[in-house]
């Protein structure tokens, strides 16, 4: 017994020490974990994990972090990153059913593949260098080919079209990057509890990757302390958005499926992460449900909120918050334990239908034309149902109601866009640029050097039904070693970003919430943005499967060409005939001629006398000329090869 | 060039008596040898060319899946009875619809699609046909030309449903097309909807999709091709301008036209007629416009799954009349005997195939060659080829009558499994189809002849042309030098100029005649095809007479002995024919092959008839007779009549003109390069041969 006590004491001591470190008041590093669950109208469930890690400003440069990941802080210090966002996405965000006008979708609906943007705090001349270094560092950190963004042909420097106005911003995306668990594991490593404890323990890989959409995002921003001598603090925000289809046995198609955390993820939450300051689970119910129960005062009515004729919650929420169009149930998972795991469930009793709020215009993008020569890119903006509701908000100074839409698009250099062919149709009528185009910024691409970029701001009338933008391009030719693997698939044009600068999405909570970083970020006004589809452009590809044939044919052609060219240069048919004739005349003195030939060969060659009448000397002179020509041709070929491959 | 050299060599040999002969280079020697013996070689080569064509069915190789990623049949089918019952229910509902309501079947199909979880939309289109425009002949699929006076009287409505791949990126899609007549749909057509909806119900649930699936039900009231082409035009080059078509009709089509990325492959499914065989029959149609074929792998996958998994009897089109032809049978038996003999000599030489197989193979080959040469797509899949999409049409003929409920279930299951397997294979594909052949001829669904093999026949056929041209030129030059003592005319290299003028004039005439139908079509008033063909014929012949009258020395009937030696003229004609055939072989190989079969003997045999008659020798008389027969066959109208006769429809008299006109009209409406070939290569060369035949020498 005594032995047991003795072994307990140091353990207790160690634990109290650890806790002291974790909640060290002088350091002020904070970590919080949150999970938002939201049933979607198309019988799916959205799970949004949100982890926030704050490192306050401190003056010690080489300090030790307690909670904050050292890799990130070193990254920030080394490359002087002011703000950065990296996202890995698989699947497409369904703007019609999953919403397009709430902070969740405008921040977490990301383009397929990898997207990275960063703002640097360095002199203008060093931004590109910092960007390149950053891509390599991130590539190593996240086991992804982010280093391909290093090449100047794959990133751009948006000025205002991206939403963040800064000349030190760089943006790049890799649409073809496959997202896998190997990207999630390093991302989880940045969390203090990894996926061992707390909410992140829910991230069962099969269930996360079985989803219809998942986007893992890392956003970091530095906070200036304002004080002299103090460094800057860092806020690291890590989110994972997953859309999962709950498995359902019910055959009824109009009934929403019931689910619980364990049925969605195959796991339950057993206690919170000890290092987290707060760990909450939210359940957001949208639409009609929110409107129905407006005034909740008494205990009974509050109870009705989560256990009514429509649906049942398996757990009692700690708090219920009303938003303009939705209800938010807050659960604190601190109370859960091994014996009583937190397993929130939602059971629907009645069929219910609602719709998500959509962005004012729904954007889709597609390719036009056929053939391997040219084509056109079209962006189609269609008015959504929620547009009418929103349109009243943005009256311009002259009383006209307008919707502003920013379009930001990167074109790879092999898509040679003709910017003068830009055509804008509003409600099926062609408009001149001055009518609808408020601002445009174009940076044309340079072959094999830089990608093209188009930023434009459209000002459309509020009652617009549809708008179309089309721009023509020529398909370029790539050098044989510039083709990626699987070149016959085609080439990707990264997503265009459509943002609505005059529309801001925010959740409008009626109560004061101070603690939750997730809810406070929802409360802030965020720019409404949506990404379009990635496009696949088929380019002409050489037949890679036949290098041998190609080499053989090329060599044959070269041999034939050079052979006949040399023949033409060297041979003089008239001369030859005369020579043969004279030889025929001299035939009688065969031995003598042979002798003279021999002597000429022995003597004549080192001297190389052109005046010599001996035909052999003549021929040797010719051969030296020939050698000179061969060297000339070879030199030209080498030079050509050198200059052609140099770029 | 070769002739000059040869002359020089001869001089050389003469002048230096006793001196060592200057040996010309071997390649030059070979050329001289070939040119000197051109008549023998031309006969040998032409015969070898024809033989090589006949031997092609023996050289056919078995097809194989070239792209490993396709992996057909490796996945277990996931179709369940639930899916099949979905399909059966749709077919039943459609039948009930015909009994109870009128029209608007589109809505019903659309509802089924959206119930399965697809995004549905309706597309209206105009059934207007293709208009011939000389300037747009080779341009790609033209952008949506909008007519100002849009009438709501006739328009078609396509229904399309899109299943989004759950985890896909939406960059690519696979299209399934089922033509259906929404006004008077047949029972068999409804079965194709049943199969596809069975499949669609499965695809809406599966998680393995990486490409979006589009199911397009086209309005086949306006033909099979036009609705698909209209949908593709809207998909690839929509007009953003206002369209009046949207306003017509009660069907609300205000919803957006939805797209799903680059189309990777397309399958057209049709069910029609009852199978004559014991098994269900699957016919594959692959030829698109101008002899373009889809990648062979697509046919391979379908064939493999149909034969080895679902037990369909797979066939491709063949010329039925050839199956009963005795001469082909004899050839087949000869080849069989030769094959057997070869095998007795060496067991490794087993190239012989049974005569029945040979007959079957050559009938299929003939059909394959003919449909490629015609340049008209054999089904709605042709519309996809214009956008570089590999597509084929599958026509399934069930062995049971359409109202048999018991068999229907099994039929749906097997049909849908075949499509599921094919879609799964295409879905596996990361790159677009590129591994296998694009240039091939089929001799059976599982045998093909690649371009490397069938090129030989054509090469052998056209090989004598340059040789004969060279030898004739030398001959003609000699004759000219003898006849004229004028030293200024003795400039050798310009001898061909007169003949070239004539050849050029007749080619120009051919070009004008090619364009004439466009202007004849512009003539106001309704004319029957027969009248139009008469108009065309009279204009063309009067143009020909004008040409003869204007250009001196062009006419074969001019009594004056004006320059053009017939040998030189024939030499230039043959060169022109050679160039024309070679160019055509690049555009449409099959046309060039059939054209060479006609044109090469005609050109080679053409010689003035007068000296032959004068000489009264049997050899020359026979030659003259042969050339006259070949010229008669070579006349396009005549050849058309003969080939019609071969296919079993005899046409005589003036109605032939009308038929011919309709045929040509279809050629240019489909933008077939064969039309250009007939007008700009075949016709001028034929006329030139006629000139040579009646040459006053």
Oligomer classification: heterodimer
Strand order of the largest sheet of chain A: 5-6-4-3-7-8-2-1-10-13-12
> What share of the residues of chain B lie within helices?
55-70%
Helical amount of chain A = 25-40%
Distance between the termini of chain B: 27 Å
β-strand amount of chain A: 25-35%
Number of DSSP helices of chain A? 17
Unreliable residue stretches of chain B: 1-19, 143-149
Query: Of all protein chain pairs, which has the greatest interface, and how many residues does each chain bring to it?
Result: A-B, 48 and 37 residues
Mean pLDDT, all residues of chain B: 83
Spatial order of strands in the largest sheet of chain B: 2-3-5-4-6-9-7-8
DSSP summary, beta strand count of chain A: 26
Biggest sheet features of chain A: 11 strands, mixed
Structural class of chain B, please?
alpha/beta
* Morphology call of chain B: globular
The best one-word shape of chain A is elongated
Structural category of chain A is alpha+beta
**DSSP, total strands of chain B:** 11
Keywords (chain B): Membrane, Transmembrane, Transmembrane helix
Region (Disordered) (chain B): 1-20
Protein name (chain B): Glycosylphosphatidylinositol anchor attachment 1 protein-like isoform X2
InterPro entries (chain B): Gaa1
